[in-house]
Amino acid sequence: MNWNKTTFILQIVNFLVFVWLLKRFLYKPVLNLIRQRKEAVQAMWKEAEKLKEEAEKLRSDYENRLKVWEEEKKRAREELEEELRVQRAKLIAENQKALELERERNKVLEEKRKRDLEIETQAKALQLGARFVARFFSNLASEEVEKKLIALCLSKLRSLPAETLELIRRSMERESVDKGVVKSVFPIGEEVKRGLKETISQIVEKDLPLDFDQDPKLLAGIRIIIGSWIVRASIEDELEFFTEAENDKIKLSL
Fold first, then answer.
1. What's the mean pLDDT in 32-53?
2. Closest residue by Cα to residue 220 from 157, 133, 159
């Protein structure tokens, strides 16, 4: 192989020209392209970093919001449980109070029922006793007993205090009484009638007509009716008074 100096020099020149051409027409565009790609990659990287930061921020906000929501949910659940507990305790207390009131009401009703039954039983026993006494006195009642009761009644009327007499007179004036009624079991004699008329006239301070009637229910004695003023002096009235008094005692004792 023959070495040619001129050829070697030409090859060197050609290489230099080729390098200059590359640098002139190819290297700069390639460098520009590489720089542009690098800038684009850096921009994309920055955009990715920005998106990553935004994503991290969103994730952090979401986690914080989720944490707050969990805390709010927990607090709401605790408040609801506390409210339910209070309501349950309130309902239990109200039910307990209602039960206590119902028990107390039933107790009062039961006591009232027993008391009423006892009163009714004693009243019936008292009525039976009164009827027995009435039958007993009806066997003992006589015209002589009635005369004694009338005499006792006249004695009581003649000894009435002044205050009572004044009340009787005012009552008669207010009611405009023009006559009275005297009831008895047996016929009243004329002498006794005159005594009754005189006594009553002295009480009312005027001559008051009297009607005399017979009422076997009195058993013995008399009943004087002058307006709203009633004089009871018979066995039947005494038994009725005794029965009412005993009934009042029974009610007061219970």
1. 83
2. 133
DSSP calls for 90-103: HHHHHHHHHHHHHH
Please state, as a whole number, how many other Cβ atoms lie within 10 Å of the Cβ of residue 233.
22
Confidence band for 1, pLDDT divided at 50, 70 and 90: very low
Among 183, 184, 181, which residue's Cα sits nearest to residue 143? 184
Q: Is the pTM of this model over 0.70?
A: no
* String of DSSP letters for 54-110: HHHHHHHHHHHHHHHHHHHHHHHHHHHHHHHHHHHHHHHHHHHHHHHHHHHHHHHHH
Confidence of residue 246 (pLDDT cuts 50, 70, 90): very low
Mean pLDDT score across all residues of the chain: 79
Residue 137, exposed/middle/buried by CB under 10 A (0-12, 13-18, 19+)?
Answer: middle
Please give the C-alpha separations between residue 238 and each of 214, 220, 221, 235, 243, in angstroms, as whole numbers.
18, 10, 10, 5, 9
